[in-house]
């Protein structure tokens, strides 16, 4: 039986409503009561009881009303930090330019404090080449400098930083990491993978709690301004205590009614699974929750640390296939009990062998499912519930999935595993896939069209701070297979893998909701869903693909509350 309707708090009408349940926008009205959508349907069929004396009615004209963007994969701590006055983010034109760009940060930070940046990519420099501590030492002989690479896997340190961190010529790196040395055997200042990751907490420890809270507030507002209503904050590091999922900072904002995003946390999967249980017990509100685990199977292709089946095309040594961060048996031993307890697991797997082994493990250990009453979204009318209805399926997720073995694409869909991908990664390193993997493997790089056609669920995100959090450039790249800044290559890279605008928006909303384990709560405009919504103008469905980035966020709602509104609209 339909639930009785009462006066809505908000009625939004548009000639272009993209519910996520339809292939194209439709003219409709969306009604909101409290923090949830209570009715969706044709404007001329709005039930009169929805209009009360306090109901706010807004006609959006032909602007696009859609579910809020939900970033399926980011690292909130570092994203907030590098956009704050505490640090800087840049690539630089070359090594010397990157050093020169430290000057504004050095001027505003206290004397003797760390200078922290993120974003350099040696393969994009002219001339290309790995930097060393010598250039930093010349400019900052008495001040510690830590420059995190754009892919977040490598640190570039000066001598002062090495000394403050206690790294000497005799130091040995931790398992899964390395300290680069020059031809004479001396430290270059380049620290990789696990060795870099374990140093980051000590580097950022000098920032105060108030400074970090300010950074979190600012970054949340930055997200809202770009139409983002929800994020998955996933573990940055697999080492115990180093995932940088700062529930304490989120909880402080939530307690102060200053949290303006729906945050789903995914801490590191360890043998001791107690942290997730503790987070789930402590974070029970609608905005902040913990939804599953994260683990890591390999690194990145550009540094030959992604785990591939056949050696890299430009192998640095015989049998250069990258490496797993942990052996497959160890990963399975972590996943199996978590899955049996009903916890979804997300695994970073970039290389084709990492993906293959991840599929093996997930196929053997699907997430144990729970049943219970669940609202069933419909295109119009109130949600229907049934005490016997199945709750939305919990699903494992693979993160990044850059390079497939051909037969594994169908396996992913058949097993119901979510493909969490970042469209802007496609064009981060022009020519890199051809250089590192060779022409035979390139056709299986980021195969979005093939994945969708196989029945797989795509979830879009940015891996921020690896790429900017703004979803519209990412949508552009998914639709055109071209870089959002340079518009290259002409015609798109692997253009057969382009997807439609509607498919890209669904991946950024409903797909990401599935990765967040929040299917049935967010990602669609349907009764029973949280009223997380974004308004874009001009409507991108009326634009040519090349002009998608002209669409601008006009209003962002989280739980029916305006968290951003463009002032010149």
Tell me briefly what this model is:
With 569 residues, the protein is an alpha/beta fold. The chain is 26% helix and 21% strand. Strands 1, 2, 3, 4, 5, 21, 22 and 23 form an eight-stranded mixed beta sheet that branches. A six-stranded mixed beta sheet has the order 7-8-9-10-12-11.
Topology:
Blueprint: E1 10-17, E2 26-33, E3 36-41, E4 56-59, E5 64-67, E6 69-74, H1 76-82, E7 88-89, H2 95-100, H3 103-108, E8 115-120, H4 133-139, E9 145-149, E10 154-157, H5 159-164, E11 177-181, E12 187-192, H6 193-204, H7 209-225, E13 228-234, H8 247-255, E14 262-266, H9 274-282, E15 288-290, E16 292-296, H10 328-340, E17 344-349, H11 352-364, E18 397-400, H12 408-414, E19 418-421, H13 432-437, H14 448-453, E20 458-460, H15 471-480, H16 501-515, E21 533-537, E22 552-558, E23 561-565
Parallel strand pairs: 1-4, 1-5, 6-13, 7-8, 8-9, 13-14, 14-15, 16-17, 17-18, 18-19, 19-20
Antiparallel strand pairs: 1-2, 2-3, 5-21, 9-10, 10-12, 11-12, 21-22, 22-23
Helix pairs in contact: 1-7, 7-8, 10-11, 15-16
């Amino acid at each position: 039986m339909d639930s009785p309707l009462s006066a809505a708090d908000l009625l939004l009408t548009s000639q272009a409503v993209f519910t996520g349940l339809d292939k194209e926008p439709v003219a409709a009205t969306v009604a909101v009561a409290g923090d949830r959508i209570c009715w969706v349907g044709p404007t001329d069929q709005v039930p009169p009881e929805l209009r009360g004396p306090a109901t706010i009615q807004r006609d959006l004209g032909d602007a696009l009303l859609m579910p809020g963007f939900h970033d399926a994969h980011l690292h909130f701590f570092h994203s907030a930090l590098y956009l704050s006055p505490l640090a800087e983010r840049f690539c630089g034109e070359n090594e010397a330019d990157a050093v020169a760009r430290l000057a504004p940060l050095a001027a505003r930070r206290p004397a003797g404090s760390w200078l922290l940046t993120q974003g350099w990519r040696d393969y994009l420099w002219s001339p290309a080449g790995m930097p060393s501590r010598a250039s930093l030492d010349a400019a900052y002989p008495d001040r510690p400098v830590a420059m995190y690479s754009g892919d977040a896997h490598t640190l570039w340190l000066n001598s002062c930083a090495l000394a403050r961190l206690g790294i000497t010529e005799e130091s040995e790196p931790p398992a899964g990491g390395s300290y680069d040395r020059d031809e004479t055997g001396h430290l270059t200042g380049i620290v990789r993978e696990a060795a870099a990751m374990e140093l980051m907490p000590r580097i950022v420890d000098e920032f105060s709690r108030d400074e970090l809270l300010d950074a979190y507030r600012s970054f949340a507002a930055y997200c809202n301004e770009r139409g983002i209503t929800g994020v998955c904050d996933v573990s940055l590091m697999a080492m115990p205590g180093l995932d940088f999922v700062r529930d304490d900072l989120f909880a402080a904002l939530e307690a102060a009614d200053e949290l303006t995003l729906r945050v789903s946390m995914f801490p590191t999967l360890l043998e001791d699974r107690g942290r997730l249980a503790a987070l789930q017990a402590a974070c029970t509100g609608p905005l902040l929750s913990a939804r599953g685990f994260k683990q890591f199977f390999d690194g990145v292709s550009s540094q030959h640390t992604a785990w591939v089946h056949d050696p890299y095309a430009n192998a640095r040594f015989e049998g250069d296939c990258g490496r797993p961060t942990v052996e497959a048996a160890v990963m399975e031993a972590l996943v199996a009990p978590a899955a049996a307890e009903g916890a979804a697991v997300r695994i970073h797997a970039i290389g084709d062998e990492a993906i293959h082994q991840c599929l093996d493990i997930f196929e053997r250990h699907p997430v144990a499912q729970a049943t219970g009453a669940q609202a069933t979204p419909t295109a119009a009318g109130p949600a229907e519930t049934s005490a016997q209805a199945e709750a939305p399926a919990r699903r494992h997720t693979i993160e990044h999935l850059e390079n497939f073995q051909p037969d594994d694409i169908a396996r992913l869909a058949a097993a119901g595993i979510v493909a969490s991908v970042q469209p802007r990664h496609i064009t981060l390193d022009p020519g890199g896939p051809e250089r590192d993997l060779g022409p035979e493997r390139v056709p299986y790089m980021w195969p979005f069209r093939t994945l969708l056609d196989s029945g797989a669920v795509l979830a879009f995100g940015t891996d921020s701070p690896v790429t900017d959090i703004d979803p519209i450039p990412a949508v552009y790249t998914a639709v055109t297979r071209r870089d959002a800044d340079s518009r290259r290559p002409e015609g798109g890279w692997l253009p057969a893998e382009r997807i439609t605008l509607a498919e890209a928006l669904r991946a950024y909303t409903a797909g990401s909701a599935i990765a967040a384990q929040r299917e049935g709560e967010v990602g669609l405009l349907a009764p029973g869903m949280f009223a997380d919504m974004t308004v874009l103008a001009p409507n991108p469905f009326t634009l040519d693909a090349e002009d998608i980035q002209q669409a601008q966020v006009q209003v962002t709602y989280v739980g029916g509350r305006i968290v951003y509104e463009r002032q010149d609209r």
